[in-house]
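=== RUN LOG ===
request id: a7f3
mode: sequence -> structure
chains: 1
length: 257
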Amino acid sequence: LYVGEHITSDNWEERYWAVVVLGAILEGPEQKCLFDKLFPVADLLISMMWDRNNKVKYAACWLISRISKVVPYVLIDKNENFQNLYRNILDGLKESPNVSSNIASIVSELAESLLNQNGVLWDTSILSGVFEELLGVLHEFSIQDIADESDLVRVRVSGFAAIYSLLQYAPKDVENTCIIYMTTIIDLLRYSLETTLDRRLEELQGFLMCALQCILTNIETNLTEDKFYDITDLITDIFRQRKDVFDEGLRSEERRV
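=== RESULT ===
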């Protein structure tokens, strides 16, 4: 009752608390009950991702992430709702790190909820039609340079978590997109061996290696011999670099002592 009375209030604090309360009670009711209650107002909840108040906007993105995890079909059973949600996701990834990290979480939760079938891959999905574009946008989002250290960490963790979910549960009809993206990852890992510009280089390499693992785990197409050796040589070079850095650190510590 409180939520229904206040979620469209002109007072931003009332809208904010209505969203927070709604998100807090999602775990309790059965899915059918939640779907019946939320589906009629899904368009309103999706539109609140662009509320005029930043705190309400942040809370609304968090709420949509929660819905994506608990009862995702509320957001996609009506094509217009999914299209509006998808546009909000693309635009939201350009927002401040506080908001955009929640947007990335929506993708992560939605992909896992819709596609995770205990190791069995779907032939196709509603995400198939936007998979290539979404993966590319998330990649650019995740590798961007951000001055504030905590914001950089927040963006990379949320962005790569979304990428992992997409790749780990990717339906069969986007396998070619995943294979193409694998080349992007390999090129970026090669570049990471030659640069010192990234402030959190080892962390970035770890994220990229995990993304590569997600692809290799799921693809059914056999790798060419050249691609196989390209990947194994790359992994060897990364571990060799890490060992050199570690050994230099030990030598520096011994000299200091």
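=== NOTES ===
The chain is about 75% helix and 0% strand.
The chain has a mean pLDDT of 86.
=== END ===
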